[in-house]
Amino acid sequence: MLQYQEMLRRILETGQRKGDPHGVGNIAVCGHHMRFDVSDRFPLITTRSLAKSFKAAVVELLWYLSGESRVDFLHKHGVHLWDQWATPEICAQYGLEPGDLGRIYGPQWIRWRTSSGGEINQIKNVIADLKRFPDSRRHVVTAWNPQDVDGVFVAPCHCFFKFFHAQGKLSLHLFQRSADAPVGVPFDIAEYAMFLRMVAQVVGMEVGEFVYDTSDTHIYLNQIEQTRELLTREPRPLPRIEINPDVKDIFAFRPEDFALLDYDPHPAMKIPVAT
């Protein structure tokens, strides 16, 4: 994935020094654009192994689709990505029970609260609209709710996406307000590319492109050494994924419905996560 290498190189070469909520310090660029053909190969980086993270990406995506805010579903499947932000101390700051992350991705996707006291299932609606009028320009889902962002510790980073249909092919365009390039971006690319494949299967369309725009695109200062090491590694051929073709309901997918194939990455690398 040369595009990803180019992103890292651009930040290192042109990024500006900034502060951040974590007090770590970072270098960042404003705005970066990438696009990936997802019709055949799967855009999972090969410059460091994310084989163990593939299952976590699947489980996290299914957690979003469940509409839940607690980490119980993640723990049931052995995933602990969010534990550091679901501690009793952090949750108490927002009036939440331990293990509850508040109204982040799942609740906003599946249970968006209306002014009249109702709820909107954005995913259900966008699936129905894709089937009814594929060429509509309204196939939009947002996780950014100004009413809720101050009530959570981690406000949604990948916060707005839109489906695009043309000539039988479905593409997905994601806008991300904040992007941790060494750690988060590879995970987000894989997750949304997989989500595109799932939705295309459910609505009966061919798979097109995943188009990805990040706004505050950064590398933390304690990640620079590892980032430079990543740039010395030559990207290898991309893997493939298989998704159970019998699943036709976006809410019926299970972790065992996904398989990563032909993945031959460089060795895994530990990169710090800003907390």
TrEMBL record:
UniProt catalytic activity:
dUMP + (6R)-5,10-methylene-5,6,7,8-tetrahydrofolate = 7,8-dihydrofolate + dTMP
Q: Where along this sequence does the record place binding of (6R)-5,10-methylene-5,6,7,8-tetrahydrofolate?
A: D180, A274
Q: What is its EC number?
A: 2.1.1.45
Q: Where is this chain primarily localised?
A: cytoplasm
GO molecular function terms attached to this record: thymidylate synthase activity
Q: Which Gene3D superfamilies match?
A: Thymidylate synthase/dCMP hydroxymethylase domain (3.30.572.10)
User: Cellular component terms, GO, for this chain's entry?
Assistant: cytosol
What is any Pfam family matched here? Answer: Thymidylat_synt
- Which InterPro entries does the record associate with it? Thymidate_synth/dCMP_Mease, Thymidate_synth/dCMP_Mease_dom, Thymidate_synth/dCMP_Mease_sf, Thymidylate_synthase
Q: Which UniProt keywords apply?
A: Cytoplasm, Methyltransferase, Nucleotide biosynthesis, Transferase
Residue span, Thymidylate synthase/dCMP hydroxymethylase domain: 3-274
Q: Pathway, per UniProt?
A: Pyrimidine metabolism; dTTP biosynthesis
**Binding site residues for dUMP:** R137, R138, R177, S178, A179, D180, H218, I219, Y220
| A biological process term (GO) from this entry | dTMP biosynthetic process
Q: Which residues form the active site?
A: C157 (nucleophile)
Compartments reported by the entry: Cytoplasm
Q: Which PANTHER family does the entry mention? A: THYMIDYLATE SYNTHASE 1 (PTHR11548:SF1)
Q: Which HAMAP family match?
A: Thymidy_synth_bact
Q: Briefly, what is this protein's role? A: Catalyzes the reductive methylation of 2'-deoxyuridine-5'-monophosphate (dUMP) to 2'-deoxythymidine-5'-monophosphate (dTMP) while utilizing 5,10-methylenetetrahydrofolate (mTHF) as the methyl donor and reductant in the reaction, yielding dihydrofolate (DHF) as a by-product. This enzymatic reaction provides an intracellular de novo source of dTMP, an essential precursor for DNA biosynthesis.
UniProt record similarity statement: Belongs to the thymidylate synthase family. Bacterial-type ThyA subfamily.
Q: How does it assemble?
A: Homodimer.
| Protein name listed in UniProt | Thymidylate synthase
Q: What organism does this protein naturally occur in?
A: Candidatus Wolfebacteria bacterium RIFOXYD1_FULL_48_65
Gene name, per UniProt, is thyA
